[in-house]
Amino acid sequence: MVGCPGCGSKLVFDIKTQQMKCSYCGKFYLVSQVSERSKNAEEHTEATDYDPMSADNPEYFGQDEFGDEFSHIGAHVPMNEKEMVVTVFTCSQCGAEIVADSDEAVTWCSYCGSPATLRSRLSRIRKPDRVIPFKVTKEECIARYLAVARKQIYAPSDLIRAGKAESFRGIYMPFWTYEVDRDGEYRFPGMTVDTVGNTQTTTRYMASGHLNSHHEGLSHDASLTFDDYVSEQIIPFMEKDAEPFDECYLNGFYANAADQKDTEYRSKILSMEGDLILNHAKWQFKSIGLQENQAKSQLSDYGAYKVRTKSALEMDPVWFLSYRRGDRVSYATVNGQTGRLYADFPASPAKFFLFSLITAIPLFLLLNLMLTAAPSFVLFLAVIGAFVASSMFKSEIGEIFAKQFHIKMDAGTKKKMNIKKILSGLLSALFIGAVIMIEALPDLLSAGSELSGVFRAEYLYILVAAVFAIVLGIRFFKMKSQYMSLSNVRLNLSNGLYLLVSVLALVVFIIRPANDWVYYSIALAAAGIVALSATNLIHNYNILSTQKPKQFSRSGGDDGVA
Length: 562
What we know:
Elements: E1 11-14, E2 19-22, E3 28-29, H1 31-40, H2 79-82, E4 83-90, E5 97-100, E6 119-126, E7 130-131, H3 138-149, H4 162-165, E8 169-196, E9 199-221, H5 228-234, E10 243-244, E11 254-255, H6 266-284, H7 292-299, E12 305-325, E13 328-335, E14 341-343, H8 349-370, H9 375-404, H10 411-444, H11 450-454, H12 457-482, H13 491-511, H14 516-544
Parallel strand pairs: 7-12, 8-11
Antiparallel strand pairs: 1-2, 2-3, 4-5, 4-6, 7-10, 8-9, 8-12, 12-13, 13-14
Helix pairs in contact: 6-7, 9-10, 9-12, 9-13, 9-14, 12-13, 13-14
């Protein structure tokens, strides 16, 4: 650590001024000034756990699968050029490693929220090539987070309090950034279909030519501790702000050392580069109906192209918040350069059912004011509620499936899903309103009207219950095959119970038993199934919105809520 030239106290990087600030006297210094002074200082730290010949040493990367060799990586690099000595704090609970100043006392883990005392040691790590300094202040980060958190009506209260947001930590995360050059001949098939009257004409094309592309700024996080799905939600980082690496930028912040080689993500980076080329090709060849799958397959044939890659290790700024409950942790992250936010908000079952109860009371009173509900009508409303709940359950399971298996959805797909949810809710409300009007219709008709003798609500109940039973039956088998790989989600139980209650209701509507308790019993069972389904869904959503660090089974620390 280089102290303040004026008073000798610790210097930290100030985000607002992008300069070094003394934590005691408040004076500012340019990073270049502090860096030059640091170079002239004779400070030597002896590492205790470094093995330069270790296979895990990130300085010893081999050649990639295409025969390309990273220009900045060769055999052993002198320590004073490509290495730096840091203090590494290791969490005894989850095994995460945090890099901090040697005089810093890290009292809790940023990754699992454990307040356990972290073990520290000196270590030599690979020196990054570049760094993007923090641009978003902690105050701005907290404001962005709270603006989103306070809209989560089911989130635990701890997560939406300003005091919790104060726990955000500034951490520099390691990212491998890549440049990819591709040169070769492409052959992209296309097909158009034109229909004139009864005549359909299919025309096939083959677009060919020479491809010479260059893409840069493709990145992937280089830390196993930082979940890939979370990191993908806050990228990209803008390379225009990247500076040659200087340890001064880390002063006052934490860091996470790279523990993954750049070769680990080569195939994913080349797939990203292929998608960029394909997006451009779709625009350029839109008139020939480009066949995307075939074109992507052709781009994946790396033998047809000369592909060269170059990488650099970069430290990128992230504001990081962890929320621990029991043995699971959820994260909130903010891109420290652009302010892009990603946060997982677990749902509180108590809040959910309280909100549902508050919503149900006015509806119950409204129905009692409008009409006197017969037992058959109560059962009918319960069946409708079960069907609506089943539809919501199906929609949410689809989102959980996409999240668990990291299936990316483009903006168009997400927009369509949101529109479907809104339309489903509106149609359900309109349908229930129409049913209420139909139920009240016989009372509105005059006693001598011909319609009053013909109209029977029971026929409507039978028809709707039969349709629901068929749809729920199809849904049961379809979801069973589509989402069978989901873990911890009891699909068959929930969907099976929905199907069972619709079939029982159909039978009751047909035989029309004299005892009212039969109607009320099945209606109560339907309400219980809806509650069970909601509880099951919240439970599984919370599993997917949190993580269980691999080493939580280790002893030590406090497992309470942090």
